[in-house]
Amino acid sequence: MKIEVFFTPAEAATVDLEGRVAVVIDTLRATSTIVEALANGARGVLPAPSLEEAIRVAQNIGRSEVLLCGERRSLRVDGFDLGNSPLEFTEDRVGGRSLVMTTTNGTPAIVAGSAARRVLIASFLNLSAAAEAVASDGGPVAVVCAGRERRFALEDAICAGALIRRVAAAAGLDEGGGDWNDAARLAAEYARGMEGSLETVLRGTAAGRQLIEAGLEADIAYCATLDRHRIVPELRDHQMTL
Amino acid sequence: MKIEVFFTPAEAATVDLEGRVAVVIDTLRATSTIVEALANGARGVLPAPSLEEAIRVAQNIGRSEVLLCGERRSLRVDGFDLGNSPLEFTEDRVGGRSLVMTTTNGTPAIVAGSAARRVLIASFLNLSAAAEAVASDGGPVAVVCAGRERRFALEDAICAGALIRRVAAAAGLDEGGGDWNDAARLAAEYARGMEGSLETVLRGTAAGRQLIEAGLEADIAYCATLDRHRIVPELRDHQMTL
Question: What pTM did the predictor assign?
Answer without folding.
Answer: 0.96
